[in-house]
Design brief:
2 copies of one chain form a homodimer. With 353 residues, chain A is α/β, with parallel strands linked by helices. Chain A has 12 helices and 12 strands. In chain A, the strands form 2 sheets. Chain A has a 6-stranded parallel β-sheet, sandwiched between helices. In chain A, strands 8-9-7-10-11-12 form a 6-stranded parallel β-sheet, sandwiched between helices. The two termini of chain A are 34 Å apart. Chains A and B meet through helix 9 and helix 10 of A and helix 9 and helix 10 of B.
């Protein structure tokens, strides 16, 4: 499914929360879409970047799709994207209304929700009436499009780094993208493999959507996308976007990437202020234990990266210093441009191969 | 899908190998089907139990379905079951021929292959002509039949034991069933939850088919079936059939059961003679390392159980003695009735809760 074009992103009141992580990813950069604006009544009139990260991006927030079209008539979007990943993947009614309105204006819809727009009778109707298309990114791919793990992964000699995390929704994909840009700036020909719907929306060439894949084919898909990326792009380095966390009870994940993807190096994203797994009362284990666990899967954590939400600058600096000493590995702040400190270590990895 | 009845099982030359693990499970006992015979040209005339485990079961092997029907006319089967789990889940041509023949005789078909019989034009034709039904056990369940993990699992106070293994196809389900029977004989009201298609075929009431579930719903399904089993049966003890192995590259698995199913006790099935993961050249890690890894997921290995294939009796006895000392936990031979030795330990678990 290779679509490209101008787009608006709907966040329905969530723009300042991690529920809008799809929108955040798109705002941080996408090669697939040209983001014209964000639709969110709660933050109308503000700059989307200011709301997301306190830093202007020159992308304005509008209350409704209607307001956008009335005021920005010239810059007409081709696509309207659902920018939230709701718990359970359902579609909030207010979002549905906005999407239907957009569709009636002839704008194609893109959704990464579990809820399949194309199976909803209201959307089916608007497809007929307005001749628009619906792109349900999370559709389940049939068996014939999938393959089993074969061991072909062992032929890939290119170094690979997985960006895993200690929870879901704490910035793995963002850190992975920043690491991609940092490596590319340092002259390392680097490819990033996506494993979530936002990654697809950002336009990376190689990847698959992990959580909608039939379980038996996960390992085969991990292998397939790494092998394809390696053969087609012949990069110096492959980065793999992780999902969830190894011990997140609502969906433990990670072994598939490390074992089936034969990955030996990990950057571990962590949010110190988060004490419990997202939406649970289950405590997140100590970072040392997570690093030990990753070792059991044959991989070394080469750096920890920090999500700073919920901490003062002072707190984050103290935590960073303390953990650097404790763990003996770099503890870095990706949003502060510190990933560049990893480059010498990565250069060594490349030299070793 | 609750069907019951008389059945024959097709194994297409594989009856003496682990490829026929579905047939083996059915021969060892099923409440869903009454097994009348096995169809396997390679072992025609023999007793299926003799071929499988060197011990008669009074179930005869026939060369073809035709031979079965011609000689055993009175005992007419309702179902013909595919008794093999082929690598990649494909349907060998010789098996297809037998299945089509059976269907033409008005016998319903049951298959746990990835290959969907009901999507095959030849089977579609025979369904129309002979008014038989096809039960593709591994069909992918749609999202609306599935649910996410909620944390409800923490309300289950009944002790739970997962039977995990160090590889796939080495007897986890069989050990789990033997443990079920052993506990029941000891007066412990025990339920076994299945997670594979053979478990469904054996007729356990609670469970789901792990490997055909959309990945995002695995944790929710694990939770759902345990909660349902606990509420409906109010058992003393719940056993959970594991799948694959935590570090099997062709499909790592286990964390979902332990973490999302909140399971704290494990019986670990191992086949000492197998040095590499099934169908790979990847060495199986040391058993001590596997036990350590399981600890990271909050569970204790309370016993190791042995698959004796590929070892002499002398070798297995030596191995058993050595490992008992090394690990400090019982190392048991399920096929020799040794699981009964676990009962005191399980009684202690029950008393603790």
């Amino acid at each position: 499914m290779d679509i490209r074009g101008k787009a608006i992103v709907i966040t329905g009141g969530y723009l300042d929360t991690s529920t809008a992580k799809t929108a955040h990813g798109l705002l941080r950069g996408t090669e697939r879409f040209d983001i014209l604006g964000v639709i969110d009544p709660k933050f109308a009139g503000k700059d989307a970047g200011e709301v997301m990260q306190g830093q202007s991006l020159g992308i304005k927030v509008f209350a409704t799709v209607k307001e956008y079209l009335q005021t920005q008539g010239i810059l007409r979007p081709d696509f309207c994207i659902v920018g939230v990943a709701t718990h359970g993947g359902y579609l909030p009614p207010s979002l549905k209304e906005e999407l239907l309105f957009a569709a009636h204006q002839g704008i194609h819809l893109v959704s990464g929700l579990h809820y399949m727009l194309h199976e909803d009778i209201d959307f089916q109707q608007v497809v007929q009436e307005s001749a628009i298309q619906i792109f349900d990114i999370r559709r389940i791919r049939p068996r014939k499009e999938l393959r089993f793990w074969t061991g072909e992964i062992y032929q890939v000699k290119t170094p690979k780094i997985a960006v895993l995390g200690t929870d879901c929704a704490l910035g793995k994909r963002t850190t992975c993208r920043f690491l991609l840009e940092t490596c590319q700036s340092a002259g390392i020909r680097t490819e990033m493999i996506y494993t979530g719907q936002t990654g697809w929306m950002q336009g990376y060439k190689h990847g698959f959507i992990f959580d909608t894949t039939i379980n038996d084919f996960i390992s085969g898909e991990v292998e397939r996308v790494i092998v394809a990326c390696d053969r087609q792009e012949k990069p110096d380095l492959i980065l793999l976007e992780g999902q969830s966390a190894l011990r997140n009870p609502s969906g433990p994940c990670g072994a598939e990437f490390l074992i089936s993807g034969n990955i030996h190096h990990v950057v571990l994203q962590h949010r110190p202020a988060r004490k419990y797994y997202d939406d649970t009362e289950v405590p997140i284990p100590a970072i040392e234990s997570e690093i030990e666990l990753i070792k059991f899967y044959g991989a070394e954590v080469i750096a920890m990266t920090l999500n700073e939400e919920g901490m003062s600058k002072q707190e984050i600096l103290e935590y960073q210093q303390e953990m650097t000493q404790k763990l003996g590995i770099p503890v870095l702040r990706p949003l502060q441009g510190e990933l560049v400190q990893l480059i010498p270590k990565i250069q060594l990895l490349l030299a070793d191969f």
